[in-house]
Amino acid sequence: MKNNLNVSINKNFSWEVIQKELRHQFGNEIYESWLKKIVFEEKFSNYILVSVSTRFIRDWIVSRYLDQILGTIKKLNKEIIRVEFKIESKLESNVNDAQKNLDPKISFIRDSFLQYNRIDQNKSFDNFVIGESNKLAFEAAKKVSEKISHYNPFYLYAGVGMGKTHILNAIGLKLKEDNKVTFISAERFMYQFVKSIKSNEMVKFKDTFRNTDVLIIDDIQFMNGKEAMQEEFFHTFNSLIDKGSQVILSADRPPNKLIKIQERIKSRFSGGLVVDIQNPEHELRLKILKSKVDELKLLYNEKLNLSDDILKFISNEIRNSIRELVGALNRVASFSRIYNRVPNLNEIKIILKDLLNTNDALITIDYIQTLVCKYFKISKNEMLSSRRSRYLVRPRQVAIYLAKVLTTKSLPEIGREFSNRDHTTVIHSVKTIEKLKSNNSEILNGINYLKNQILYRKENEI
Prior knowledge:
With 462 residues, the protein is an alpha/beta fold. The chain folds into four domains: 15-101, GMP Synthetase, Chain A, domain 3, CATH 3.30.300.180; 135-276, Rossmann fold (3-Layer(aba) Sandwich), CATH 3.40.50.300; 282-351, Helicase, Ruva Protein, domain 3; 360-455, Chromosomal Replication Initiator Protein Dnaa, Chain: A, CATH 1.10.1750.10. It has helices spanning 15-26, 28-33, 55-64, 66-76, 95-101, 135-146, 164-175, 186-198, 202-210, 227-242, 263-270, 282-300, 308-317, 322-339, 345-351, 365-376, 380-384, 390-406, 411-417, 423-439, 441-455, and strands at 39-43, 47-52, 82-87, 154-157, 181-185, 214-218, 246-251, 273-276.
């Protein structure tokens, strides 16, 4: 039976040792919340396979802790160069059961030079949210998955975080029912190509990629400038097309816009079915958010009661990336989980500050001064004057404080913008406002209001 506490990886150390190191390195809170959920599955020649119960847990661990986890493992075994995750909802099942569940039609070449598989059971056509911007790509992908090599190659392009990989994965899941599927990223294809040359295993490399029914390569633009690899890919591509295998590709741009890719390769890409995913419209963004809220409720049995106003705000502000949209929702869900309440709109603006449609270049000291003067009903000349009347000092200090926290200007630069005041005046103003914020709710509310106006302003506000 699998055991995440006492599985021996080799004669030198065990998974128990690794987990003790992780607890010591990350602290008890992070370990108990996340890292304890990792279950060791198996060790291969140069990587280990682990599992977690949900895709959300995997994504959270990979995005925040994987580099440090791998560094800890490497200290104990230098042969390990990566950690692979799989989703296993029934963690109590034993290793033999897990091996039985591996589909032989997916090219998961164990103990060989490839040792890689990207198929994700959680990314299917069923849970892909459809809107006007991605409907054509979705329908085309379904056609490809129904009739192999009818649309060949199938080339899908879109910007980062738009759902390309989800669609490719969905095609792979569907086609693996009756075909042998190889799903790999262009970066990984390049890695295996170079590794095969160095280890004199090009025959194995060619056999692996040319003896498949379906070859899916994600982010093909990363082959740019690699002439030797492009040469091998060109012959692999032709071999697969000639024998009626399906080739499926994704990129961040159309074939004719690929940089440093051989013209003959771009020509062959253009000869198939080329489809794009456009920027998601508001209705789709809102639909995705509602779908993800339902998914989080189902996964964690939690009450995430986000109002329609909050969902509309997030979908209005984050427009260009579905991945960022989902990431924003995860942040809000984490806040709700930590504080046991749903954040209000002002708190959400702060939580998502770096994701919202703000233009940092527009946050100038001059703009801050203008807005503060408008708020306190004074003129800018009065604010910048040498007069020390109380009704002028406080707005001046507030403006200096906001300039310090909302811009990257240095203390002397801020001082110069306020009629060449000394940097010590800037420091005094910042400390004064910080102290007042903690003791005076009226000042705190005013500061928060001004922050929101500055960070999330509309063009016609002033």
